[in-house]
Structure formats: structure tokens, C-alpha cells
Specification:
Elements (H helix, E strand, L loop, with lengths): L1 E5 L2 H14 L5 E6 L5 H11 L14 E4 L6 E5 L6 H5 L3 H5 L4 E5 L13 E7 L8 E7 L13
Parallel strand pairs: 2-5, 2-6, 4-5
Antiparallel strand pairs: 1-7, 3-4, 6-7
Helix pairs in contact: 1-2
Main location: cytoplasm
Keywords: ATP-binding, Cytoplasm, Magnesium, Metal-binding, Nucleotide-binding, tRNA processing
Family: Belongs to the TsaE family.
Length: about 150
């Protein structure tokens, strides 16, 4: 597991951008962390790394936002308000994540059983003992397709 300790919003965006510059078609990135840890900001950075300059907002009420203006399409999910996994399946979840787009799923832990094994998982934790802005970002994956993450240094 790769870990980063960050202490400001710009580092979160930079890490996301570095991931976005390296992602490949079909990558699935699962984000887990409490409210306010930076999941959407990390997604904004990923979008920037993909060359997407649209305003990135969390699709809390629509479940998914699609962005087509970058080198790869981005499907940005937020399943925080999903009542059950069937609701996610009904929007065509499988078609989204098993496509050539990059899929980023905020609150992925809410739909664990729907997440394929060949996903990257990013866990964001506040480190309040170090200060209000400190975060630990831990990245884990089983599929070698994500080995590009090892190239990233902040």
C-alpha cells in the first residue's frame, strides 16, 4: 500500500492530477473517506490530469456525472445518498464501469459488492492530531495495471 501525508488542498489536487495524467482507459478508482476529507478535490485533480477543464461537482443527487472533454471520458460517481445497490445498478452502473472511460466512485465502500476486484482503492483519513488540514491518503490495488501509481512522488 502506497501512502501520502498531505497538509493542504493544493497537494490533494496535485496528487489527483498526477493520477489523472497516468490513468488508462477502463480504470476504476474507488474513494473512501469521511465527509470533508477531500474525495471531490482529488477527483477534480484527476479530471485536470485527464485534460478536463469543466467544473467538477459531486453528483450527490444524480449519482453520476459524465465528462467527455479530456483525453479519456470520466464517469464521476457519488453514491453517498444511494439507498441500496439496486439503485446504482438501475442507472446502468456496469455499462459505465466496464467501458473505456475512467470511473471515479466516491463513497465506494457503500457499494462494495458491486466493485470489481480490478479496481484501485484510495482511502483518505483526516490526521487531526497533526492539524486540521493534514490527510493520509493510502492507495491500494491488486491489479498490476495500476503500477503507474508507484511513479508518483509529492
Amino acid at each position: 500500500m502506497l501512502q501520502f501525508i498531505i497538509d493542504n488542498l493544493n497537494q490533494t489536487l496535485l496528487l489527483g492530477k498526477m493520477i489523472g495524467e497516468r490513468v488508462q482507459a477502463g480504470d476504476i478508482i474507488c474513494l473512501t473517506g469521511d465527509l470533508g476529507t477531500g474525495k471531490t478535490h482529488l477527483t477534480k485533480g484527476i479530471a485536470e490530469g485527464l485534460g478536463i477543464h469543466d467544473q467538477i461537482t459531486s453528483p450527490t443527487f444524480t449519482i453520476v456525472n459524465e465528462y467527455n472533454s479530456g483525453r479519456l471520458k470520466l464517469n464521476h460517481f457519488d453514491v453517498y445518498r444511494v439507498n441500496d445497490e439496486e439503485e446504482v445498478l438501475n442507472i446502468g452502473f456496469d455499462e459505465y464501469i466496464f467501458s473505456d472511460a475512467v470511473s471515479v466512485i466516491e463513497w465506494a465502500n457503500y457499494i462494495d459488492s458491486l466493485i470489481p476486484e480490478e479496481s484501485m482503492h484510495i482511502y483518505i483519513t483526516k490526521l487531526m492530531e497533526k492539524g486540521e488540514n493534514f490527510r493520509k491518503i493510502a492507495i491500494d490495488y491488486a491489479d498490476k495495471r495500476y503500477d503507474y501509481i508507484k511513479e508518483i512522488e509529492l
